[in-house]
Specification:
This is Methylase of chemotaxis methyl-accepting protein. One of its GO terms (molecular function) is S-adenosylmethionine-dependent methyltransferase activity. Keywords: Methyltransferase, S-adenosyl-L-methionine, Transferase. It holds the Pfam family CheR. InterPro entries: Bact_Chemotaxis_MeTrfase, CheR_C, CheR_MeTrfase, CheR_N, SAM-dependent_MTases_sf. With about 260 residues, the protein is α/β, with parallel strands linked by helices. It has two domains: about 70 residues, no CATH class; about 180 residues, Vaccinia Virus protein VP39 (Rossmann fold), CATH 3.40.50. It contains ten helices and ten strands. Strands 6-2-1-7-8-10-9 form a seven-stranded mixed beta sheet. Strand 1, helix 6 and strand 2 form a beta-alpha-beta unit. Helix 3 crosses helix 4. The longest helix has 19 residues. The chain starts with a helix and ends with a strand. Bound molecules: S-adenosylmethionine (SAM). S-adenosylmethionine binds next to helix 6.
């Protein structure tokens, strides 16, 4: 197959996949996405995009497996330990200087590990601060896990052992997050690229989500995040996601991976 015909067919696939999934792959970098789609098609025995699209429409199990493969929902509690230390020592103290109640959002929250880590941090180190946390994701399967709050040992590689004891109950099924943590966290289905955002957030974490987004999609998203923050609110990005040259959005770095909206 020539490169041109793959490329044309990819565009048709993107058009055909959008109505069913709500996921518009034109916002994602073509090279990486095409590679991921072709590797899935190969390993499941579909030689062409039209055959694969037909199978996705007919087989919900295949569709779920493919959606999971595309959205890459790997996460962990307290992923990137150093950033959580900065959050605790510098960022939250800055936020609560002027407010005793915080509104936080974990955008692209996967199975809930990130918003629950935020909740535990506030409960443990800032017990007099009231807060609410929103967790959103495009993948309904990860949101099911987030709502269930049940995790396996390997979700906790970066978690202080005393947190595991204090905020989870263990059983033969795994580790269940306690209701005292859960009650402050709400989950919602949302596509960051197309849906409207709430506003007035003190803090937004969007980490390891934009890796496959095009530069235009990232720019649009960071602009929407900035609008969703209150003046003085802070955006937390992933450990490879430096926002160089985005000062025009009105964000300035507080520390690596934390950006504050101007007052
Ligand atoms: C690698 S996980 C990151 C989870 C967590 N933020 C962390 O850093 O551990 C990326 C998540 O982004 C979600 N995602 C990808 N594209 C999205 C979109 N357009 N809207 C909302 N969520 C999206 C995926 O479903 C996945 O759960």
């Amino acid at each position: 197959m020539s490169h041109t015909s793959i490329s044309n067919t990819y565009e048709d696939f993107v058009k055909g996949f959008h109505p069913k999934s709500g996921l518009d792959l034109k916002f994602y970098k073509q090279n990486q996405m095409q590679r991921r789609i072709l590797s899935f098609m190969n390993s499941h025995g579909y030689p062409t995009y039209p055959e694969f699209l037909k199978a996705l429409n007919a087989d919900p199990v295949l569709y779920d497996a493919f959606f999971k493969h595309l959205t890459i929902n790997v996460s962990q509690f307290f992923r990137d330990t150093n950033q959580w230390k900065t959050l605790r020592q510098t960022v939250i103290p800055l936020l609560i200087q002027s407010k005793s109640q915080l509104k936080l959002w974990s955008a692209g929250c996967s199975g809930g590990q990130e918003p629950y880590s935020l909740a535990m941090t506030l409960m443990e180190y800032f017990p007099s601060t009231k807060f609410s946390i929103l967790g959103t994701d495009i993948d309904v399967n990860v949101l099911r896990q987030a709502n269930d709050g049940l995790y396996k040992q390997n979700d906790f590689a970066s978690t202080p052992p005393e947190f595991l004891q204090k905020y989870f109950t263990s059983s033969d099924k795994g580790y269940q997050i306690k209701d005292s943590v859960k009650r402050n966290v709400q989950f919602q289905h949302q596509n960051l690229l197309t849906d409207r955002f709430q506003t007035g957030f003190d803090f937004i974490a969007c980490r390891n989500v934009v890796i496959y987004f095009t530069e235009e999609a990232k720019e649009m998203l960071y602009k929407k995040f900035t609008e969703a923050l209150r003046p003085g609110g802070i955006l937390f990005t992933g450990s490879t996601e430096h926002l160089f040259g985005l000062a025009h959005l009105g964000l300035k770095p507080v520390s690596s991976f934390f950006y504050q909206k101007g007052f």
